[in-house]
Amino acid sequence: MPYWVGICGGSASGKTYLLELLRRHLPPDKVTFLSTDHYYRDLAHQPRDPEGRVNFDHPEAIDHEKLYHDLLELRAGRSVSQREYTFNRPGATPRLLTFAPAPVLIAEGLFLFYWAPIRELFDLRIFMEAPEPYRFIRRLQRDQTERGYTPDSITHQYLTQVLPAYEQFIAPLRRFAHVIIQNDYGDITPALKVVLSHLQEVVRKS
User: Fold this and answer.
1) Which CATH superfamily hosts domain 3-205?
2) Which of 101, 143, 163, 179 would bridge with 149, disulfide CB 3.0–4.6 Å?
3) Is the preceding omega at residue 133 within 30 degrees of 0, hence cis?
4) Residue 177: pLDDT band by 50, 70, 90 thresholds?
5) How confident is the model at residue 91, as a pLDDT?
6) Is 119 a residue whose pLDDT tops 90?
7) What's the pLDDT band for 89 if we cut at 50, 70, 90?
8) pTM of this prediction?
């Protein structure tokens, strides 16, 4: 049986950061890396907040039926394809991404532990925890530099969508985690060493 690792946590808590660190140190032919960002529904099918704005920080923003289907396919040893999510960047052409089965799968996402059938597929569940105001500062920096959003729009979205979603939907998911990584200042080296050592042993035995 493959060994699956799930990484969950709030926006800008370090989920993708941890995944990328693991990617650098694990053999690519032994590990499948997957982000649930690529499973956002099309804009026409996105939930809306009370102001009528698209709300990407709600569990229903994710096509979890397709995500679950694809995870089961990978579990059965079959490759899956999914259109790349480009974070609403104008002019960006999404690629068709292919995920192939491997002895180890590492997935990350805001709501990865929200749906029990998906959550229970993971042998090791990691929750990335970063308190305020660190998550907001990281989100502000990231969305300006990587996505071209204005500080005002980032702040408004954070206060009206991101933070309420974290408190309502994401923070409660930490109770399903086997490991909680505290990411206050961006240095998760001690935790990384422990997780990496464990996964390297899993890969060695695969």
Assistant:
1) P-loop containing nucleotide triphosphate hydrolases (3.40.50.300)
2) 143
3) yes
4) very high
5) 66
6) yes
7) low
8) 0.92
* Model confidence at 116: pLDDT above 80: yes
Are 53 and 153 a contacting pair, CB within 8 Å?
no
Amino acid at 142: R
Q: What percent of the chain has pLDDT over 70?
A: 97
- How many whole angstroms separate alpha carbon 183 and alpha carbon 130? 5
What type of residue is 46?
Q
pLDDT tens digits along 123-159: 999 999 998 888 999 899 988 988 788 999 999 999 9
3-state secondary structure 104-149: EEEEEECCCCCCHHHHCCCCEEEEEECCCCHHHHHHHHHHHHCCCC
From the list 123, 107, 128, 82, the residue with the least C-alpha distance to 206 is 123
- Which residue is listed with tokens 């929200």? 114
* 3 state SS for the chain: CCEEEEEEECCCCCHHHHHHHHHHHCCCCCEEEEEHHHHECCHHHCCECCCCCECCCCHHHECHHHHHHHHHHHHCCCCEEEECCCCCCCCCCCCEEEECCCCEEEEEECCCCCCHHHHCCCCEEEEEECCCCHHHHHHHHHHHHCCCCCHHHHHHHHHHHHHHHHHHHHHHHHHHCCEEEECCCCCCHHHHHHHHHHHHHHHHHC
